[in-house]
Design a protein that fits this description.
Strand order of the largest sheet: 5-6-4-18-23-20-22-21
Number of strands: 23
Number of helices: 32
Radius of gyration: 35 Å
Shape: elongated
Distance between the termini: 5 Å
Helix content: 55-70%
Oligomer: single chain
Strand content: 5-15%
Length: 1002
């Protein structure tokens, strides 16, 4: 090998950089451990909620350290150290991952200036329906819906988009296609604005290493907040639109007559409705039912409300407060006041009045209803756009408030509003997201300078979050969480422990096997492999990649698959030695001859990993990232580092046989006639495929909520429980109606899945689901409170919700489609690559046939066994990752065989084509079985010790490796053979390209 000095220099520099990058991770861990030890020394051992207090103390200490400019490591501050340390994903650290859908409907409504045009409203409703089964964007479906019903109406109509808000951009003469182009631009600008607002809010929230990215042009935004403790608080911060408005308050005594008239109207309407219902009921009751009703007294249970509105008043009004109502009656009062016939009772000078409820006081059952001075355009005199700064502070009574500063335009309007309020002794309502937070009056006259504050019984965290939101700005439209995953820190720590154990065991087994099989050569491969691991972690840390549990699996799998390159090289060297070549020549030719197979095998695996990276999300993308990095570093260490070590030892006079006494003659002089057995193999495979397809059509697959939508909650109990029993309780009609409950790992861990209200993505529904689960499972929870049950911030949690996952049906369809295209795309890419490398479509067909065979059988195994396996076998994104990995692995094997066929055909031109194939398969059998066995050992280690969450994923890979090894021997090559015309065999196999790089191989 030439340029050894350059290779050594690069290897040393690469290694040093990796060590430097990883040193930040070790230092960060040491600082965090010290913070925990300090906190434990400060908090008394018998303190209530000691664990939470220790965590809080440590967090505050680290926050203080993060703002310090003091150097803590190699001239870097703690903030720099933390930024450069290894990032852990949600499944390892706990936290929140969510996909938000920015409401394009809201954006269109805003661009139309809140148009009431019936065609426009109908098109929006139709677009909502189309979206349920569509893969298009909402805007595309809106255009389709509008075209279907528009008649003579145009998008550029004055009562739709040719309005004041879009003057100069859409005019009355504009065609629909031109208007669509403008709307696409405006909607995209609004989504970019929403993205920036969300990014600023998250930056202000102070989460370590957050990730926020826009997902194409779908109006969706991916958020990853690893390590966030208070998930509910983070969620509220994210989805709050933060529409801040200032309205003038009216006097409640102006509405006395209105209240009486409204009450009378409602009483008349309700009495008429009750009479109608009673008549209908009377007609429907049989004589027997009437007798039963008379005996039980049920016929007298309906009592008409005397005063439907006034009777709901729980307290008097004053100033701009019309009255106080019970929080439970809030929706009923809002529905009454929203009735057109009730609103018509307002005097002409008050016809635009806004009825807005206030923010309830903590521990109070009452809420104030305010009357505000509205207008025709429903535009406030002043809104939050004028706010330039907002901070949490305290008022003169030491209450938590939010202080704001306005720009010059806002300051001028604010001075006018406060001056008017001073004159009339009126109030100014501070309204945030249609809730009145406070309604202060001006007791000192006009307020100049644009300074003001918002009060409203805030907690410290609420005031801080509100100030952060106001600084970041308001969202231009609603943001709904359509997919979310919440993992508690205790579950994350368990994942770290299991991942570390599986990694250590797999590595030890591979190192021992290589030394056992290849002797001293295996030891050199082990050194290269350990260096490879250092490089993988160094690159991950250097590029800021997030390490996930599937990522750890990817690294461990890379270790198993990286052995393949060394195996190929060593097997080639053994072949050259068996031909009688001297050690130096055998080593040189072995490395040279193996290079083509190594590159082809790794490129095909890399292509499938690249497709997985493009189509995957979250942890699956992490798996693809580590796999891609691992392929690159494995190639470098196998081709260069192993070569340096082998050459160094050989040049010193050391003898290398690349075997041990027990393995020296293994797989030597094998000559199996594989092609004669192909018909038997075809029959076996045909039976397996038919059985698999039959099961797929009858049993189906256990589709996870990734593909069907729903909510999944993992609950841990103090003692073992029956999944069947819990499923029966949760499937009751008064709970969820239907639910699926599975045991995950131990008998005290259950995964509960339900589609209850899945089309509703609001936080309130998530809370309702949690409450229903808690109420139903209370007898099994041993007195755990609801707050403790749902709390995901406790790192030592042992009972209650451990993680939560939600996918709306719309995004489930998108995930399913993306998965389909990922698998199909990988098959097409591989077909084309093999066609490019081997020049004949028959090779591509054989490879794709083997891959198709493997995928069907893996699916069939899952379909046949998912009902009784003791671990989850759901078909989800992780399963698709496994399928793509199986495709890459199967192709890896197949390409090595094809490469040997091409080589033998050129070397033994007089051999029959069948003999070329049988000899090629026999000569590569040692490599095939060795690599498969090593990979299986690694996969089994992860399967047994790697944690419950990836057990199904590993099972799919294990089946895939076994089936892939079989298909590379008995399917891919025989199919290729049967489709190549024997008379044209010489044309079928072009002369092998000689891979000689003078700078690398000599």
């Amino acid at each position: 090998m030439q340029n050894k000095g350059l290779v050594k220099l690069f290897a040393v520099l690469f290694g040093l950089v990796s060590i430097y990058q990883l040193s930040f991770t070790f230092k960060n861990n040491a600082i965090e451990n010290n913070a925990t030890e300090l906190a434990e020394s400060k908090i008394e051992a018998g303190a209530t909620d000691r664990s939470a207090k220790v965590n809080d103390y440590a967090a505050k200490y680290l926050d203080t350290l993060a703002t310090s400019k003091e150097s803590v490591f190699l001239g870097n501050t703690y903030g720099d150290v933390k930024q450069n340390s290894m990032k852990l994903g949600l499944d390892l650290k706990g936290g929140l991952e969510a996909i938000l859908q920015i409401s394009v409907r809201d954006l269109l409504t805003g661009l139309s200036n809140d148009s009431k045009d019936p065609t426009f409203k109908k098109a929006l409703d139709d677009a909502d329906e189309i979206q349920k089964d569509s893969q298009n964007t909402y805007l595309e479906d809106f255009f389709v819906a509008f075209d279907a019903i528009k008649g003579d109406k145009k998008l550029a109509s004055p009562d739709i988009f040719a309005n004041r808000a879009l003057v100069g951009e859409i005019d009355l003469n504009m065609s629909d296609s031109d208007a669509q182009a403008v709307l696409e631009t405006k909607v995209d600008e609004s989504i970019v604005s929403a993205f920036e607002v969300l990014r600023k809010r998250i930056d202000e929230f102070g989460v370590t290493s957050p990730n926020i990215q826009r997902l194409g042009n779908t109006g969706r935004v991916l958020l990853e907040l690893p390590g966030v403790k208070d998930v509910a608080r983070a969620t509220d911060l994210i989805i709050q639109t933060a529409q801040l408005e200032f309205w003038e308050g009216l006097k409640a005594d102006q509405f006395n007559q209105f209240l009486i008239q409204a009450n009378d109207l409602l009483k008349t309407k309700l009495e008429a409705k009750t009479t109608s219902e009673d008549t209908t009921e009377a007609k429907e009751l049989t004589e027997e039912e009437k007798a039963i009703a008379a005996l039980t007294g049920e016929e007298n249970e309906t009592v008409n409300e005397v005063n439907p509105l006034i009777d709901l008043m729980a307290g008097p009004g004053f100033g701009a407060t019309l009255a106080q109502f019970n929080i439970a009656d809030k929706e009923k009062v809002e529905s009454y006041l929203a009735m057109p016939e009730v609103k018509a009772l307002l005097p002409s000078e008050l016809k635009y009045t806004k009825f807005v409820f206030g923010k309830p006081t903590e521990n109070s059952e009452l809420v104030d209803l305010f009357v505000l001075k509205g207008n025709r355009d429903n535009e406030p005199p002043l809104n939050g756009a004028v706010v330039t700064d907002a901070r949490q502070s305290y008022d003169q009574a030491n209450r938590v408030v939010v202080s704001m500063q306005m720009n010059s335009k806002g300051a001028k309007i604010w001075e006018q509003m406060t001056g008017e309020a001073f004159k009339t002794q009126g109030q100014i309502a501070v309204v945030l997201d249609n809730i009145v937070y406070s309604a202060p009056s001006s007791s000192t006259g006009p307020i100049a300078g644009g300074s003001t504050e918002i009060s409203g019984s805030f907690s410290l965290s609420e005031a801080t979050d509100l100030a952060n939101v106001l600084r970041a700005g308001k969202l231009p439209a609603r943001a709904e969480i359509i997919q979310s995953s919440v993992v508690g820190p205790s579950l994350g720590q368990e994942a770290i422990d299991s991942g570390t154990m599986s990694f250590g065991i797999a590595l030890a087994l591979v190192l021992i096997w290589m030394a056992f099989y290849y002797g001293k050569g295996g030891l050199f491969a082990d050194i290269a492999m350990l260096f490879n691991i250092l490089l993988i972690f160094g690159v991950l840390s250097g590029i800021g990649a997030v390490l996930t549990l599937p990522g750890i699996a990817g690294i461990v799998l890379t270790i198993g698959m990286s052995v393949d390159a060394n195996v190929l090289i060593f097997e080639r060297i053994r072949e050259e030695l068996s031909k009688g070549k001297d050690q130096k020549a055998a080593i040189q030719d072995g490395f040279s001859n193996a290079l083509s197979s190594i590159l082809d095998a790794n490129i095909t695996t890399g292509l499938t990993a690249l497709i997985l990276f493009i189509f995957g999300t979250g942890p699956i993308k992490g798996f693809a990232t580590t796999l891609l990095i691992g392929i690159g570093t494995s190639l470098f260490t196998a081709i260069f580092i192993t070569r340096l070590l082998v050459d160094w030892y050989a040049n010193r006079g050391g003898k290398l046989e690349f075997s041990t006494g027990l393995t020296k003659n293994l797989f030597r002089n094998i000559n199996i006639e594989f092609l004669k057995k192909r018909k038997v193999a075809y029959i076996i495979s045909a039976v397996a495929i038919v059985v698999s397809l039959g099961s797929l059509f009858t049993n189906g697959l256990d589709q996870g909520i990734d593909f069907v939508g729903g909510r999944t909650t993992q609950v841990r109990f103090a003692e073992p429980v029956s999944a069947v029993e819990i499923e029966g309780l949760l499937s009751a009609q008064d709970v969820f109606g239907s639910a699926t409950v599975k045991t995950v790992g131990d008998d005290n861990n259950l995964k509960i899945s339900t589609k209850y209200k899945i089309n509703e993505t609001a936080n309130e529904v998530d809370e309702e689901v949690r409450l229903k689960i808690y109420n139903t499972l209370q007898p099994y929870l041993k007195g755990v409170s609801f707050e403790a049950f749902k709390d995901l911030s406790n790192a030592d949690k042992q009972v209650g919700i451990m993680d939560q996952y939600k996918v709306s049906p719309s995004i489930a369809d998108d995930i399913k489609q993306a998965s389909f295209w990922a698998v199909l795309g990988s098959l097409i890419v591989v077909f084309l690559y093999i066609l490019f490398r081997f020049k004949r479509w028959q090779f591509s067909l054989g490879a794709v046939a083997a891959v198709f065979h493997d995928v069907i059988i893996v699916l069939g195994v899952f379909s046949l066994t998912y009902k009784f396996m003791p671990f989850s076998m759901e078909i989800d994104q992780a399963f698709i990752a496994a399928i793509l990995t199986v495709i890459g692995y199967s192709l890896n094997d197949t390409v090595v065989v094809f490469d040997r066929i091409r080589e033998f055909f050129n070397e033994h031109t007089e051999w029959p084509f069948a003999k070329v194939i049988d000899s090629s398969l026999s000569s590569t059998l040692s490599r095939t079985l060795n690599t498969s066995l090593t990979t299986l050992v690694v996969l089994l280690a992860i399967f047994i010790f790697g944690g419950d969450s990836i057990r199904g994923f590993m099972f799919a890979l294990i089946i895939g490796v076994v089936v892939g090894t079989y298909s590379s021997l008995f399917i891919a090559t025989p199919v290729m053979y049967d489709f190549v015309k024997k008379g044209n065999a010489a044309d079928a196999l072009k002369k092998k390209e000689v891979v000689v790089d003078e700078t690398v191989v000599k």
